Amino acid sequence: MPTLYTMPGTCSLAPNIAVAWLDAPVEVHTMAYGGHKKADYLEINSKGKVPAVKFDDGDVLTEASAILEWLGAAHGKGTYGRDTKLGRKEAEALSYMTSEMHATYGGHFGPQNFAESQDAVEEVKRKTYEKLANQYKHLNDVLNANGREWYLGKRSFADTFLYVLERWIEQTPLSIDDYPALKDHRARMEADKGVQTALKRQDMEPIG
Q1: To bridge 80 with a disulfide, which of 76, 114, 142, 200 should be the other Cys (CB 3.0-4.6 Å)?
Q2: Contacts for 37 with CB less than 8 Å, ≥ 6 apart
């Protein structure tokens, strides 16, 4: 049985939720924070990041969007096929969230990686939050345009990563109250039994 490696507070929550939604035959192994830097995990994923899936044959798949696509293809029973409109839009949304927005969060989680002086670090943080504010507005606008219930109008794996981003906003000076569609979506996700299962497996609590 494949094993999904997760860690509290990380974007590995997205494929964890997908596993729960699909009731996929995947074992979820949650490491304590910092476990991603230990030798036994680095043998699995030398990038030292989560998520990762290790298969029975020893193959390893990393990156949240790639793992979500594999889960959909292997266990989604055609629901998330890339030959459908929903599947195409899901791929587009996940690409934006996992590359554009996740990269922007680098200026929040590690501003010292982009600047040396304290003044420069503060400037990186300020520009990061300006960019995130515009990106959250984009997400809120898309959700509104698609009926507010699900990001793409129907439930998809885009909702799993959107929920991660809706949690992360609490770590920034931004307020989810400025994005009412996202706030409602986060509450709806936290009422979902699959999300609750994934949170428990990952030693996390609801935020809303």
Answers
A1: 76
A2: 48
